[in-house]
Design goal:
Elements lengths: L1 E3 L4 E5 L2 E4 H23 L5 H25 L2 H4 L10 E2 L5 E2 L7 H17 E6 L4 E6 L7 H25 L14 E3 L1 H9 L4 E8 L11 E9 L6 H18 L1 H4 L11 E6 L5 E9 L5 H23 L7 H17 L18 H22 L6
Parallel strand pairs: 1-8
Antiparallel strand pairs: 2-3, 4-5, 6-7, 9-10, 10-12, 11-12
Helix pairs in contact: 1-2, 1-5, 2-4, 5-9, 5-10, 9-10, 10-11
């Protein structure tokens, strides 16, 4: 069991934060751009077009991913807070900078397909001053839609690897319980919720434990250490807080109970002592829910697929047929997406919960079908890509 309790903030300077997710997304984009430049130069394409193309790719991906999350997963909320769709902060209950939390991969795929079509077939000239917008239908020299997409999916799957690592750093898109000792205990929600429950709490940590507790082998014993500020409470008040407020939070607070399996019908198993500075520290013995690191499963398979697709391109770039790479991408990536949903904990289903496919699975089916059709088309095509 790995206890994962990493802050999503990579660097903080005053009120400004650099989050792991944003940093990894930026790295994936910059690395993808460099790989794209190498691929274009190897095929003798005009590199001047690449920088323009990356603007279309970035905007299409971000807009599509954001709208996909809004429409597919949280429309009820954003229909009441439309400004928060594209603004990186919330207004309720208080104004708070949040960044763009909520990006859907299926929406990103759709946005990317549309953006590349516009890039390949239209030239857009936008001038800020004097304001002027012209749109001219004009095919990009030496590029077809399928040629561009066949190369783009190679760097796109690498970006998917970085994004899933970012999800892991955020402790989001967590997996289902493994019902074994192998997996990850995502502790951040637990420690944050408990620390916010009282100003008297100095720090909350979770560690592995060998304590003997009633256990059905589905959960793993852990120790929850709550350090109180010096002089904050008397012993009686702290014990009352632990046995009532903390016990209630462990059992009923959703952000905590999804990670800890505290028994409601049993008293809280804890010891209260003082540290060297004379402050009280409570050590609570409870059970942790170990989960599949589904984010890392997807990240690893994305990295492997990147190397496979890049190897195929590097060894057969003169023999590739239109639609071959994007067809393989659609079949493998979204086929795996359906498979990995089995390991994920998600409340988003099409209707009910009686084995009905979830929204990500349902959205993956048409993309798999499109991949199959493109791959068949590429096999029948007598044309080799330029």
């Amino acid at each position: 069991m790995i206890i994962w309790n990493v802050s999503p903030v990579m660097l903080q300077l005053g009120s400004w934060e650099l989050r792991w997710y944003g940093a990894l997304f930026a790295v994936s984009f910059l690395l993808g751009q460099q790989i794209g430049r190498y691929m274009w130069s190897q095929e003798g394409k005009n590199l001047a077009y690449l920088d323009v193309a990356m603007v279309y790719v970035f905007l299409g991906t971000m807009i599509g991913a954001r709208l996909g999350h809004v429409l597919f997963y949280d429309f009820a909320y954003f229909s009441q807070h439309p400004l928060e769709i594209f603004l990186p902060f919330t207004f309720e209950p208080t104004f708070k900078f949040t960044g763009y939390q909520g990006l859907a991969s299926h929406g990103a795929a759709i946005g990317l397909l549309i953006a590349v079509y516009i890039y390949v077939n239209y030239v857009i000239d936008l001038r800020l001053w004097p304001p002027k917008l012209t749109i001219k239908k004009q095919r990009r020299e030496g590029q077809s839609y399928l040629w561009f997409m066949d190369r783009l999916v190679i760097v796109g799957i690498l970006a998917g690897c970085f994004i899933r690592i970012g999800n892991f750093m955020n402790s989001e898109i967590i997996g289902k319980p493994t019902h074994s000792r192998y997996g990850v205990l995502f502790a951040r929600d637990v420690t944050q919720q408990l620390q916010a429950s009282s100003r008297a709490i100095q720090k909350v940590t979770i560690t592995k434990s060998k304590a003997l507790l009633p256990n059905d082998d589905n959960y793993q014993p852990v120790t929850l250490a709550i350090a109180f500020k010096h002089g904050s409470f008397e012993e009686t008040a702290i014990r009352n807080f632990l046995e009532n407020d903390v016990k209630r939070s462990l059992v009923k607070e959703p952000h905590i109970s999804r990670h800890l399996a505290e028994k409601q019908d049993q008293p809280l198993h804890y010891e209260l002592s003082k540290n060297k500075r004379g402050a009280y520290v409570a050590h609570i013995n409870t059970l942790g829910i170990v989960r599949h690191p589904a984010q890392l499963y997807e990240a690893f398979s994305s990295l492997v697929l990147f190397f496979l697709l890049f190897y195929r391109w590097s060894t057969q770039k003169g023999l590739l047929r239109p639609g071959e790479m994007i067809g393989l991408f659609g079949i493998i990536v979204f086929g795996l997406r359906i498979f990995y949903e089995v390991f994920k904990e998600s409340k988003v289903v099409w209707a009910g919960s009686w084995g009905i496919p979830r929204v990500p699975q349902l959205l993956s089916f048409p993309l798999i079908v499109a991949g199959i059709l493109l791959f068949i088309y590429s096999r029948k095509s007598s044309k080799v890509q330029d």
